[in-house]
Amino acid sequence: MESENSVSHPALSRTVLELPPSGIRRFFDIAAAMQDVVSLGVGEPDFATPWSIREAAIYSIERGQTTYTSNYGLLELRRAISKHLMRLYEVEYNPDTEILVTVGVSEALDLAMRSILDPGDEVIVPEPSYVSYKPCISLAGGQPVVVETKAEDGFAVTVEALEKHCSKKTKAIILGYPSNPTGGCMSAEQLQKIVDFARLKNLFLISDEIYDRLVYEGTHCCVASLPGAYERTLVLNGFSKAYAMTGWRVGYACGPAALISAMMKIHAYTMLCAPTAGQKAALEALNHAENSVREMLEQYNQRRLLIVNGFNEMGLSCHIPKGAFYAFPSIASSGLSSEAFAEKLLYDQRVAVVPGTAFGAAGSSFIRCSYATSLSNINLALERIAVFLAKIRC
Amino acid sequence: MINLSLMISEPTDEILSILSRDARVTAEQIAKMTGRELKEVKAAIEAYEKSGVIKRYKAIIDWEKAGVEKVLAFIDVQVAPAREVGFDKVAFRISRFPEVMSVWLVSGTHDLRVLVQGDNLRELGRFVAEKLSTIEGIRATETHFMMRRYKEDNDLFVDSDEDNRLLVTP
Lengths: 394, 170
Ligand SMILES: Cc1ncc(COP(=O)(O)O)c(C=O)c1O
Hints:
The complex is a heterodimer.
Chain A: H1 14-18, H2 23-32, E1 38-39, H3 51-62, H4 75-89, E2 99-102, H5 104-116, E3 122-127, H6 133-139, E4 143-148, H7 159-165, E5 170-175, H8 188-201, E6 204-208, E7 233-238, E8 251-254, H9 257-270, H10 276-288, H11 290-313, E9 326-327, H12 338-349, E10 351-352, E11 354-355, E12 367-370, H13 375-393
Parallel strand pairs in A: 1-10, 3-4, 3-5, 5-6, 6-7
Antiparallel strand pairs in A: 2-8, 7-8, 9-12, 11-12
Chain B: H1 11-21, H2 27-34, H3 38-51, E1 71-79, H4 88-95, E2 100-105, E3 112-118, H5 121-132, E4 138-145, E5 151-152, E6 155-156
Antiparallel strand pairs in B: 1-3, 1-4, 2-3, 5-6
Helix pairs in contact in B: 2-3
Residues 43, 104-106, 130, 176, 180, 208, 210, 238, 240, 246, 251 of chain A line the site of pyridoxal-5'-phosphate.
């Protein structure tokens, strides 16, 4: 925690000072100072954005399309998003009132929390889960309430667990499937139970579906498409993962008009609009990048099977991640904590992974290994991890 | 609704697509990457090799970088089609020269497009003048020398940036 008694300027916000720093940051600092690191720590695609998408953005810049767009985002893009969700999931969103284009899912999450929470309101966060959920809740004045999920359930959240943590102050549940860090997915049947529960308790469902296109077994279920879900669900999605567009900063939120309009109000004051060239690129992605998505999906899938097989062979039990691009093996058999494991592995074998605790206490006997990297890197990392395990086991 | 699970190639195609990206991936690796038995993968590859689906394995070499001078030319050839065999006779004949890398029958003002490789301009010029244009049935040729290679068989021949992602990100 930073020092509060600075002499040169007034103290910073207590909320910010009390916000725990990201567990990922520390590992980044260590890894960045080292040479010849093989990284399984990267949470973004190793592919460059498909060329047709990049080219569309260049063209828009050449034509001088460099102004602000509507606060809601380019209407053309909102229409394409609406069509896309209809085609994939048969959910219908009105491009005029129910879709907001944001600066990534990151901004959409923040807007959602600020739009639904009053001080003291609670939001249920299944963990292990994405690092931003809890801080976004806290920064919006809310109270994150953690529900632990387990490897034996494929990291799906259950109604039994929710019931134990639901109170009168609970306002929403965050769902992040396919999951970063676990790769876990939830089936339509499993999700329906959560939807029914949310209806019973009158809760919002904030569903971060940014990995929806990266599903290797079964099909993705869009939460809003389930009976009873639509009017209480906010679907968050974006272009970062499926189209390898992390640096473009474009995402979107779809949900009830009143909620979208509230989010737009904040967005209009704090962000004005998402980057224009990025929105043009996103439009091209939706219209013409299906083949690229398919190609990347196929390669991720091959790496997924390779890396999971590798972990299981060296005795790190690894549930089968059905989506995203992360394997989440258990390192319990090593006798080390996930922090210690990740740190020793980095210093000893120059392999960077992220300790499961970065995603919540429920991740304490796991490490997150991203397979969004080349086959040769995966093979090299697996070899080094095997050497590391042999060393610490003897 | 579209069926998303169909988006991954059939397992047989998958072996080919892995090898077409990198021919040095071993059968053991492919078995792991596709979740199939090693025996099955080995048998499939062998069958592909036998039937000629996989013709052979080779390295993609940037000869310029290796400091080896090579001259490439595209030669468009007009052919008087022969009775019964059409363009085949001339095309096969051209194909047998070791200088000739590729021969395609194409639509447009010419009939055959031939890709020829030689050690220098003089050698290629002689090939066209003495060997190619003298073949019976060839009416005219038009030669385009390759000046610079940007991309070939899906491989870019410009130096690409390294992976500049941060080492650890959320
Ligand atoms: C689960 C999840 N949600 C949201 C994000 C942020 O995505 P964006 O680039 O759209 O802000 C990430 C990125 O790592 C993620 O993994």
